Amino acid sequence: MGVVLLLSNMKIRHYLAIFSISITLLLAACGPDDPIAEGNTKAPKPADSTAQHNALTSDSASLQNLLRQYDPPGRDVWQKPEVVIGKMGDLSNKTVADIGAGSGFFSRRLAQQAKHVIAVELDPRFIHFMDSIKRVELKPEYQSRFETRLGLPNDPKLKPNEADIVLVVNTYIYIQNRIAYLKNLLNVMPQGGKIIIVDFKRKRMPIKYPRPEVRLELYEVENELDAAGFTNIESDDCALDYQYIVMAEK
Ligand SMILES: C[S@@+](CC[C@H](N)C(=O)[O-])C[C@H]1O[C@@H](n2cnc3c(N)ncnc32)[C@H](O)[C@@H]1O
Predict the structure, then answer these.
(1) Is the CB of 72 under 6 A from ligand 1?
(2) 105 CA closest ligand 1 atom index
(3) Ligand 1 pocket check for 200: Cβ under 6 Å
């Protein structure tokens, strides 16, 4: 367990180092000398660069905390990504949209099987993080299949018929107006398109995140899919120890 924890912490530090270098390059590219940098109407005072550095450092720190929460040590063991991805069938000719992709835990794996993956995220820090680590973790042929996209709270920014399968892992409860969001997805999904929602069961379990009050009952997810207009709603609450998997079609 100690070794897994150490390796996991080393991995997060490794990714964060790469991420920090990317952010530094990004800041350099949009720095004070860049005429198109937003709000760059005057030369920065020394105090501005200190504030910028402090903001970046605290940003990285909170990103590190989020990464620890999203991808705790040993997540692969209970998350069983191969079981979740296996539910999607043959992906060689399919585009998958991973809504709320976070660190890209699923998108990175999907990019090695699907024709194309669109990792939709609200938080630009995770967009930069995924753009950085895909270059480290994935072979060039898989990198080109992995697209990150900034979404809005009420809009995944998917184009009509763009995604054959929509995956929502550990994110559904954070969507503010869920039924409206599902209807929005339904509008852009092709006929026969699939949605797969994976989220935490409301029961005692040895992992502490997310807290039980930040979880939905399985029947609530099923009811909301139904209310939004999805059909063939099927659930599997046995395959994963801590989470249920709900599948539905347009
Ligand atoms: C708990 S993380 C899960 C990350 C990833 N799916 C995983 O399983 O590792 C939830 C993520 O969803 C993102 N998120 C929340 N609401 C969203 C929305 N409406 N559209 C896109 N991303 C969203 C958050 O920024 C956060 O990164």
Answers:
(1) no
(2) 9
(3) no
Q: Of ligand 1's atoms, which has the minimum distance to the CA of residue 79?
A: 8
- Is 153 near ligand 1, meaning CB less than 6 Å away? yes
Coil, strand or helix: which one is 79?
helix
Amino acid found at 235: S
CA atoms of 108 and 143, how far apart (whole Å):
9
Q: Where in the chain does DSSP place strands (E)?
A: 95-99, 116-121, 146-150, 165-169, 194-200, 231-236, 243-249
Which residues, at least 6 apart from 26, have a Cβ–Cβ distance to it below 8 Å? 128
pLDDT in tens, 31-40: 332 222 322 3
| Ligand 1 pocket mutation pick from 79, 103, 122, 184 by most atoms within 8 angstroms of CB | 122
Mean pLDDT estimate for the chain: 83
Q: What is the value of pTM for the model shown? A: 0.81
- From the centroid of its chain, how far is CA 218? 21
Residue 195 contacts residue 230 (beta carbons within 8 Å): yes
3-state secondary structure of 117: strand
User: Are 221 and 195 a contacting pair, CB within 8 Å?
Assistant: no
Inter-residue contact 101 to 107 (CB < 8 Å): yes
Q: Strand 243-249 and strand 194-200: pairing?
A: antiparallel
Pair of tokens at residue 56:
């970046």
User: How many Å apart are CA 100 and CA 80, to the nearest integer?
Assistant: 18
Q: Which residues contact 7 (CB under 8 A, 6 or more apart)?
A: 73
